[in-house]
Protein: DUF4219 domain-containing protein
Amino acid sequence: MNMAESSPFAFPKLDGSNYISWKEDMKVVLMDRGCWSFIIGEDKPCPEQATEKEKFEYDWRKQRCYTTIYQGLERKFLPLIRHTTDGKEAWNILKSNFEPTSKARLAVLIDEFFELKFNPEEETIGIFFKRVDEKKTRVKEEGFEIPEFLIALQLIRRLPAEYDHLVQTLYRLKDEEFNHREVEKQLVNEAGRIQLKQKDLNLDYKENTYTVGSFRLQETRKKSSERSGAVLDSSRNLGQYRRIGYPKGRGRFVTFVPAKDTMHLNVIRSGIKKRNKLSHRKLRSVELIKLLEYRQTGISS
Structure:
């Protein structure tokens, strides 16, 4: 089951392995609910001269601080804080159980820093820079500052193949020029170029698809017209022609002849049928030959 789905918040519940990210997310929720001041000890007890409404609001916020933390834990960790109803105490218990000691935490943060990787399908290059900067800041808070050279190197060491040419160029920079600000500027420009190129490629693909489709449609119509056997005189009006079809089951051949010749063609067809049992293809050829002879001589055979 996905823990993020069962969480009442927009982030997963504390499962023992995500304490660092959970702590930051829970801090934001407590701040939003006006409860973070209880965790850092800035919210003093309600004075005796306070009104009943003020006392009620104070108690309500204090209880909400604890219940918010309680709702953010997986069920197996609830016994750790079940004996208390104080939010600050619950927070400190979780910290002592899940936050690594200083050196161990530093090692984990450094590993996480060098595992960062840009994923263009899920984030922009700017968001990737922000993730690197946040991880660098956490390492610094533990008492160790990552050298500038390693920060710049981390920005380019695991980029997609589209950035290979730029990466090779950045490797050739002088040491004093190879810093994360210069690298970020170059990567932003390259990301914009790649995005524009991809957009142009998609547009060209759509245009080519449309052009090929139209061409194929025209070719299909042309071939269909050629197969139909249509014989028309372009100098005549279409109303002067009559369509002569053939019996069903004898093919898709259609012949167009002048309307005045239709009656004579039917006479020719009738005579041929009586004398010969020809296939519809042969019948069509003989009819046309006879019709041409008639047009030339005026005599039907």
About this structure: Residues 103-196 form one domain.
